[in-house]
Amino acid sequence: MEQNVLNLRIAGPAGTGVKATGMIFSRACMRGGLHVFSFTDYPSLIRGGCNTFQIRVEEKPVLSSIYSIDALIVLTPSVIDETIAELRPGGVVICDEKDVPAIKRTDVTIIGVPTATLLKEAGLSLIMKNQVFLGLFMGLTTYPFDLLEDTIRYTFAKKEDDVIVGNIMAAQKGYDFVKQHNLSFDRSLSPIEGPAKILVSGNEAVALGALSAGIGLYVAYPMTPSTAILHFLAKAATQKNIVVKQGEDEIGVANLAIGAAHAGARAMCGTSGGGFALMQEAVSLAGITETPVVFVEVMRGAPATGVPTWTEQADLRFVMHAGHGDFPKVVLAPGDVDEAYEFIQIAFNAADKYQCPAVLLSDKYLGESYFSVQPFTTGSIPIDRGKIETSPAEGFERYAVVPDGISPRSLPGTKNGIFVANSDEHTPKGYSEESIENRNAQVEKRGRKLAGALDYLPKPELFGEENAAITIISFGSNKGAILQAIAFLKKDGITANFLHVKTLVPFHADLVKERLMKAKKTLVVEQNHDGQFRSVIRENTLRDVDDVLLKYSGRQIYPEEILAKVKEVLQ
Amino acid sequence: MTTVQDLKTPATNTWCPGCGNFGILVALQQAIVEMGWEQHEVLIVAGIGCSGHICNYVNTYVFEGLHGRPVPVAIGAKLANPNLHVIVMAGDGDTYGEGLNHFINGIRGNHDVTMIVHNNGLYALTTGQSSPASDKGFKSPSTPAGLIEPALNPLALALTQNGSFVARTAAFDMKQQKEVFMQAFKHKGFSFVEVMQHCVTFNHVKSLAFLREHVKPITGHDVKNRAAALQLALSHELYTGVFLDDERRKSYSEEIGSLVVAGPTSEPIQISDLMDSMK
């Protein structure tokens, strides 16, 4: 019997409450002091297919999902074949009694639940089926029912009483079924003491971080998997007095954000790869007009429409080189929700400090996965609006050629601050001007702006032992899986460490190079086909790594895959 | 008080001698002065093309953005600081070609900005290709055998998409232009003004002489009557004046529940209450 170590998958067609059920389970565990990590996989459709929501529970913060699942709740028989392979031998399947014959595995325990009968007994509708399964699973793990009840009340707080009571009764029916039929399972869950936590996704962390950074305007065109940022901020807009707008297309969105930023608001727009492709000319416009604007790019499987609801990191090079022409920009890649919350605040500061576009590069796996973490602190990163001239002297020059390249800007409405923000090359005042002397001076001025940025922006962080047998180098959402793999490797007597690169543009080339030189073996882990991050390292450090683990199926990298690759490299 | 002199800039003008843009520039400067606006409270957002060069010649805040994209920049600026007087100056290629989606959605949203379209019926800065405002049969370097598509009807488009202010004027008519601009500035909501502009270098069909001969000032028309306005817009006559000025529809800023007035400082927005639903 293992306690508080569990990996549960809930599977069903779209529209059957897979995620809602998974969220109640996740929350019930978290409210009992446990840590959870939950992720969702779903095809691009509204009804049918196979959606899954997978929750890993531990007593310590859960780093990532793992391949093998202990228990599977299936809501309809149609999804069984697609989802049962990862169930470990000895694991348990919970399904309706009618669906039992559809399960071909003989090495697992199958619990067929007479849901129709149970719900009928309680006078409840069949749509409460999910709560029966959930209650049953909680009973199976011997987790206290009152924590589940409490979570159901919390989840349905805005619903009518009979909905709340009905859901609780349905869950109770499932919970009692375990005792009535003497069912048992080799995993149990039990509440522990711990600080209060929140269950938050990467997208929500970005939205919260943007608020914390004092955002004034958010604009977006719906695009999976970034849309949750739009939903979250739209809901909060009136109460928080910010403008949140859905634009007519991504070109309009990016230009609208630039207009708002030009007028002085902290402005952000969010999208995924295809939408960001449409924004390219605007990124370049922010570059030459030196407008501080923040972009969030939540990557999904590309090219074109690709695999739109799955994860990938193949927009890396595209984002690093966003926009035509030479101009400074900042690209940050958070690895988890805490970093997402922090880095978006840093992105706003960087955009203002260096008067340039800043991009937060996330992906579907981070954006739509839920982590249990301590609540965030409002304003955890002090706001820095950079050089804004509030009382310019007569003759003020917005694009004055200054030593650090960062000329003080004035906001429209400021007396004596008049200038032209010009997409044409321009004089210090902003007038169109193409002379060789002026062109060179302005290009070089802009080119100097990031000179001090490497000190301000998040530096690569080393996790694990200094003298490990192998150094893994990666970025973004691979962080959790790599840390989990390192923990697994340790059990096998293999030491590995991990260099987590947080800032992609500009690049901490010296720090990465120093680590490469110290490493005994080096392995890059990234989710694309071409090895884009490996080539970024190579061009910046003039050194190559020993090997690379690539994945581009749309599914996230699992710790087990990293573990196997490390063993292969070390052989 | 801002004077016309204040609104001039030292930049060298690069428009062709006799260009219709000169008339638009002067009428714009006069209208701003007569509105009594301070020059630093005005933000002109320009597109790209000969019209966009106006960015260099008006001494107010100016944002010269991308070809086709001035409307969203203007909307963003107005949403961030409603105290600004925001004016879009764009060309027919800008507005009806590259940026048609933004134009229609600016009208749909009824954002409180004024859009002045310099319509010379072609792409002048790229040496005279046909534009969506060129008539069917128009011969140009890109359509040597004559343009196949008929011209877009921007006024009818604006009127059928719930536009709240729709007007047309001519670049040579200083008096009417200034009056129409001022009426547009005073209008709460998206005010769209098309200026028929002659291009002395490339448009030998809709020349200054042609426009002088064909424009027909509207008389005896109720500017709140959309159906009558649409009839005028669909007519083969080149009517000028205000077709529609109707504030019964609220502007976007009046509809939206948030009021942001951006400034040089920002404060963190409290998030603890939002995290209550995440526990």
Number of domains of chain A: 4
Shape of chain A: globular
Class by SSE composition of chain A: alpha/beta
List unreliable stretches of 5+ residues of chain B: none
Largest sheet of chain A: 8 strands, mixed
Q: In percent terms, what proportion of residues of chain A is strand?
A: 15-25%
Q: Helical element count of chain B?
A: 10
Can you name the CATH architecture of chain B? 3-Layer(aba) Sandwich
Brief sketch in words of this structure:
Chain A is an alpha/beta fold. Chain A contains 20 helices and 23 strands. Chain A folds into 4 domains: 187 residues, Pyruvate-ferredoxin Oxidoreductase, domain 3, CATH 3.40.920.10; 175 residues, Thiamin diphosphate (ThDP)-binding fold, Pyr/PP domains (Rossmann fold); 69 residues, no CATH class; 112 residues, 3-Layer(aba) Sandwich (Rossmann fold), CATH 3.40.50.
Question: What do you see in this structure?
Answer:
The complex is a heterodimer of chains A (571) and B (279). Chain A is built from 20 helices and 23 strands. By secondary structure, chain A is α/β, with parallel strands linked by helices. Chain B is of the alpha/beta class and 279 residues long. Chain B has one domain (20-278): Rossmann fold, CATH 3.40.50.970. Helices cover 32% and strands 18% of the residues of chain B. Chain B has an eight-stranded mixed beta sheet, sandwiched between helices. In chain B, strands 5-6 form a two-stranded antiparallel sheet. The longest helix of chain B is centred in the first third of the chain and has 16 residues, at 20-35. The model of chain B has no long low-confidence stretch (mean pLDDT 97). Chains A and B meet through strand 9, helix 7, helix 8, strand 11 and helix 9 of A and strand 2, helix 2, helix 4 and helix 10 of B. Strand 17 of chain A pairs parallel with strand 2 of chain B.
